[in-house]
Amino acid sequence: MLDEKLSKLKESIKALGKVVVAFSGGVDSTFLLKTCIDELGRDNVLAVTAHSQAITERELIEAQALAALLNARQVIVESTELDDPNITDNPPERCYYCKKQIFSNFIAIARENGYNFILEGTNFSDSDDFRPGMAAIKELGVLSPLKDAGLTKDEIRELSKAMGLPTWNKPSYACLFSRFPYGEKITPDKLKRVAKAEDILRQYGFCQFRVRSHGDLARIEFLPQEMDKVFDESFRNTVISEFKKIGFIYITLDLAGYRSGSMNEGLKEEDMALWKN
After folding, report:
1. 80-100: per-residue pLDDT in tens?
2. Which residues of the chain have pLDDT under 50?
3. Which residues lie closer than 8 Å to 179 by C-beta, 6 or more apart?
4. What's the pLDDT score for residue 276?
5. Rounded to whole angstroms, how far apart are CA atoms 115 and 110?
6. Do residues 248 and 216 make contact, with C-beta atoms less than 8 angstroms apart?
7. 26 near 156, Cβ under 8 Å?
8. What pLDDT does residue 39 have?
């Protein structure tokens, strides 16, 4: 079954001939980029990476290092999401406007360099999630070959491991905009504060977690199996002290633990249905 999905993916990529890959350095886009290079050759593949205000400099550096590891041709594209009130006002459909801006920039790069097809790394596991950005991707004619081949996140990790990709067990990341409840205005200072807070936790060996920012309150989501670490008094006091230094007043632990898209939990079903894939 997995072999069939992989064959379907390779065949669909071969048929395109020359492609631009939206490359973030995550599990999915790294696997997609590697597969495209293997099937089409380095000269027929261009990785485009957004230097976005929604990601940390660390993530950008990682994406550049991975592109170099794969011997990929890469272009860094500057994006200016915080200039768009449709994004900074943080409505539920924020991701639509964000993807529209970023992928419009990618399309311009593709046209300048003679590429007709742009690929992105949404996988089949994302199909039922609340993803307004997918509407923008479809409108712009961007292709999602991993999703179309039926490849799930776990399957992509399995294939990545077999291919020797260092990203096979990389934690799932999401843009920093997703750390804020809908309706709370997003600012550069708030983004920096969340990034610093997550860096603090990362230094203690946590991999899969989120710091959700609700005004002056930080709501931390850890994997359930890692929650015991939080109750160490020394660790807890250090986190409280460090978070307060960067501007949080209240620091809380979410007992439900880490889960992707937790900010969507307050949305009404009818609102989510409008953007379901």
Report:
1. 999 999 999 999 999 999 999
2. 270, 275, 277
3. 194, 210, 211, 212, 213, 263
4. 52
5. 5
6. yes
7. no
8. 98
Count of CB atoms situated within 10 Å of the CB of 129: 15
- Residues 36-54 have pLDDT tens digits of 999 999 999 999 999 998 9
Q: How far apart are the first and last CA of the chain?
A: 24
Report which DSSP code applies to 262: G
- What whole-number distance in Å separates Cα of residue 215 and Cα of residue 51? 26
- Alpha carbon 212 to its chain centroid, in Å, reads 16
**Burial annotation 164-192 (CB, 10 A radius, 16+ → b, else e):** ebebbebeebebbbbbbeeeeebeeebbe
Of 234, 226, 215, which is closest to residue 254 (Cα–Cα)? 226
Which amino acid makes up residue 128? D
pLDDT at position 275 is 46
Residue with tokens 């670490």: 229
CB 175 within 8 A of CB 165: no
Q: Which amino acid is at 85?
A: P
Q: Which amino acid is at 272?
A: M
Distance CA 225, CA 251 (A): 20
Give Rg (Cα) of the chain.
Answer: 19
The H-or-E segment that residue 12 falls in is: helix 2-14
10's tokens: 């390779």
* CA angle centred on 73, ends 115 and 139, rounded to 5°: 40
pLDDT score recorded for residue 128:
64
